[in-house]
Design goal:
Shape: globular
Number of helices: 13
Largest sheet: 11 strands, mixed
Order of helices and strands: HEHHEHEEEEHEEHHEHHEEEEEEHHHHEE
Helix content: 25-40%
Strand content: 25-35%
Distance between the termini: 47 Å
Strand order of the largest sheet: 2-3-4-5-6-1-9-13-12-11-10
Oligomer: single chain
């Protein structure tokens, strides 16, 4: 991580490692059928009374939500169609000027896990079943946690979900400390004191979350302390998102580097690398799926490295922030050093990471370690912006007016020119469409090809031995100002009026783009499968060399 930051220090203004979205889920000790049957027995009810009992309690939860919203003077809205609830709640808060407290309550029908009465031997019994019921979404602006929502299902066992955004929590903390910042959505594009902000972000995992979450449960569930007796919620973290934001100075500083990073991570990171990032080793007994998922969508691209149900995401946030995000859905895939019980004794050892909310600091530690390993792997990537700028300077006049006259080359011969600017040409990003590539240069000057019958063969260079059936992998050729040919692309016709130069691919250096698609390009530019010239593909880097044109 330090190597990556030092390498691009002139374009980076700071970093921020912080929790992003955290889902806390609360469960009552009623998630199995026997526990639900015991609750009915405690109230003197039979299994056949289950449906009427739970329907009455569900109605109590709904009526409590309506009364709570009416008492606070906030709207209660039933959703008949799909809607981005968070965006709608933020619009309501902005419209009504809500700065703290309840914003609104939404109700929607969604699937859940509940119970159903099924026939059995001797008597009916309860079984866990999937069904649909009404879910209530309470949106709050909390004084410590910022904008959040609490979701409760209105059917037994009344599971609760509290969704908190770590950047909202950090914003509230920086407001209390008087630290100035500029935020867009859930990202900070500028922070007055990055070190102080990072210290506040490190405290998020160590907050007394049990004390903060229990009041939400009592607010949305009126049955606590009533028919549920002394039963309380057990809170877990499922899932958590931890992100590292690398803040760049501008869009122009991040854009070329980001594209190179995406291509490197997509093409070069293997399954073993992904396992290493997420704290695992490749083992023959590993049973799971590891993949790289690359998607291009507005307003940019996103790359995801997934191992089972955990993954690392990389994307650009608002075109000025490189965000690396670790999402943990299955924490037991991570090993953490903590106190536990083994062979009946309390020992400090490596154990699978549990889901309990008290272990949230371990989530932060494991996620940050994964982010560090990922940035260390990306530190090998160089910023292509200097090479792209040099190449654009070389080709600006060429693209506009064609080949410049000799005096504009500074009196150099073409061999001296290519020798002097060869480092810029070799550093050109072969993936970027905005600059000249070997294939792009060839297409740019394809309109000036003579007939194959008029082309003299390429004379061998001094000391060059060209065996039959073999050719050099990559060569740079140029057509002289008088129209004489200094090189050729395999057996194809050379270019008599090239704007600059073109790449020659032969032997094993490229692959045909025909329908077969797998044939290697041979001498003469032909394909073993289609016997034609096909369409040139990017040559491999193995053994490639630059051959200057003959003077």
């Amino acid at each position: 991580m330090e190597e990556f930051l030092a390498k691009h220090a002139d374009k980076i203004t700071g970093t921020l490692a912080c929790f992003d979205r955290i889902n806390f889920k609360g469960y009552l000790p009623l998630n199995w059928a026997k526990a639900m049957e015991k609750l009915l027995t405690d109230h003197g009810l039979l299994i056949k009374d289950f449906k009427g009992f739970v329907a009455a309690q569900s109605q109590r939860v709904v009526e409590h939500a309506k009364a709570f919203a009416e008492e606070a003077g906030r709207p209660y809205r039933y959703l008949y169609h799909n809607l981005r609830k968070e965006d709608a709640a933020r619009d309501i808060a902005q419209r009504d000027g809500v700065s703290e407290g309840l914003v609104c309550v939404f109700a929607a029908i969604e699937p859940c896990q509940s119970f159903a009465m099924v026939p059995g031997k001797g008597r009916p019994h309860l079984a866990v079943r999937r069904r649909k019921c009404r879910h209530l979404y309470y949106y709050f602006i909390h004084s410590e946690l910022g904008f959040l929502h609490v979701r409760i299902q209105t059917w037994f066992p009344f599971a609760i979900q509290v969704c908190v955004n770590g950047h909202e929590v950090l914003a509230k903390a920086m407001d209390r400390e008087g630290i100035a910042y500029r935020r867009i959505d859930n990202a900070f594009v500028w922070i007055e004191a990055p070190e102080a902000a990072q210290a506040l972000a490190n405290r998020i995992g160590r907050r007394p979350w049990l004390r903060l979450l229990t009041p939400f449960a009592r607010t949305v569930n009126p049955l606590l302390g009533d028919i549920l007796g002394r039963r309380t919620y057990y809170w877990i973290t499922d899932p958590s998102e931890f992100s590292l934001d690398v803040l760049f100075t501008s869009r122009a500083a991040l854009a070329p580097l980001y594209e190179r990073l995406m291509h490197h991570a997509t093409l070069c990171f293997s399954a073993e690398d992904v396992l290493t990032f997420l704290g695992r080793k490749l083992h023959p007994a590993f049973a799971g799926e590891v993949l790289n998922d690359y998607k291009r969508r507005w307003p940019g691209t996103r790359l995801k490295h997934r191992m089972k149900e955990n993954w690392i995401k990389v994307y650009d946030k608002h075109a000025t922030i490189l965000r690396i995000e670790v999402v943990i859905n299955r924490p037991r895939e991570f090993k953490t050093r903590r106190w536990g019980t083994r062979n009946g004794q309390r020992v400090l050892d490596w154990y699978p990471m549990p889901k309990g909310v008290r272990y949230l600091p371990l989530y932060a530690k494991a996620s940050f370690a994964a982010v560090r390993r990922y940035l260390d792997a990306l530190a090998i990537v160089d910023d292509p912006a200097p090479a792209q700028a040099g190449l654009r300077a070389l080709t600006r006049r060429v693209r506009r007016n064609g080949l410049p006259p000799d005096p504009e080359r500074g009196g150099l011969t073409w061999g001296e020119f290519l020798a002097r600017e060869g480092d810029v040409l070799l550093c050109a990003d072969l993936f970027t469409k905005e600059i000249w590539t070997s294939c792009g240069l060839q297409r740019a000057c394809a309109s000036a090809r003579p007939a194959p019958s008029t082309v003299p063969p390429r004379p061998a260079l001094e000391g060059e031995q060209q065996p039959a059936g073999k050719a050099s992998s990559v060569s740079i050729s140029w057509d002289g100002p008088s129209g004489t040919t200094a090189g050729r692309r395999g057996g194809r016709a050379p270019l008599t009026r090239s704007p600059l130069f073109h790449a020659c691919v032969s032997g094993w250096g490229g692959r045909c783009g025909c329908r077969g698609g797998a044939g290697r390009l041979r001498v003469g530019g032909g394909c073993r499968r289609c016997r034609g010239r096909g369409r040139w593909r990017r040559p491999t880097s193995r053994g490639s060399a630059i051959h200057p044109p003959r003077a």
